[in-house]
Amino acid sequence: MKSITISKKGTRSEFNEDAMLALPNKGVFLVSDGVGGGPSGHEASRSTVQSLYDALSVSNISEKIIVDGISFANKAVLEKSKVGDNKGMACTLVLAWIEGDILTCFNIGDSRIYRVRQGEIQQLTTDQVKQVERNNRVKSLVTNAIGIKEKVTPEITQFDWLEGDIVLLMSDGISDVVADTEMCEFLSRTGISMLDRAKALIGASVTNGSEDDKTLVIAF
């Protein structure tokens, strides 16, 4: 299995609040997006990625090991939130685990996992958000995140995995401004490398006006 990782800091914050991890030899890929802005979001996403990297250092991955790793990451963020300026720190998480012909998705928050198959794209995760009105504008607020309560429960879903499939994990700096059909068009291009396709997708998010951090992990 191969993978591509790419991240571009947005203009909204001093810090890139996104973090990512690709372990193609284990079939595990993840993206985390800090919630709340500033250094606390940056710290939350990186702490979560480090916790999961440590948890996944075992020889044999299982669903239980991943869920336990997510719980460990949640506890670590909660502990860090008690220190200094970290109060309220939290982050999203999407994790894809590919084993044989099964793709298992773990989702907390509003980052997304997609699968591209034979020129068609499917969103595999559900955004865990609610719509609220502030200053005469409708805004989406994350309803589930790592670091906001003592126990976190990921949405876990399974799908079949076929040769030739492409899985995308991304932060909302991409998915908020690039339509699914446009993503599929970029990823289905032939004659260019997967890295160039990934760069084109990041570029499209900038062109479409995203000021947020943009992170993309592709497994294929």
Textual characterization of the structure:
With 220 residues, this protein is of the alpha+beta class. The protein has one domain (3-219): PPM-type phosphatase domain (Phosphatase 2c, domain 1, 4-Layer Sandwich), CATH 3.60.40.10. The protein contains five helices and 13 strands. Strands 2, 3, 4, 5, 6 and 11 form a six-stranded antiparallel sheet that branches. The protein has a five-stranded antiparallel sheet with strand order 1-13-12-7-8. Strands 9-10 form a two-stranded antiparallel sheet. Helix 1 (38-55) runs antiparallel to helix 2 (63-80) and helix 4 (180-187) runs antiparallel to helix 5 (194-207). 44% of the residues are buried.
Query: Terminal Cα separation, in Å?
Result: 6 Å
Shape: globular
Low-confidence stretches: none
Along the chain, the helix and strand elements come as EEEHHEEEEEEEEEHHHE
Tally of distinct domains: 1
Taken as a percent bin, the fraction of beta residues is 25-35%
Strand elements, count: 13
Separate helix tally: 5
Share of residues in helices: 25-40%
Main beta sheet: strand number and arrangement?
A: 6 strands, antiparallel
What is the CATH architecture assignment?
Answer: 4-Layer Sandwich
Q: Tell me, rounded to a whole number, the average pLDDT.
A: 94
Radius of gyration, CA atoms, in whole angstroms: 17 Å
Structural class per helix/strand content? alpha+beta
Q: What is the CATH C-level name?
A: Alpha Beta
- The CATH homologous superfamily name equals PPM-type phosphatase domain
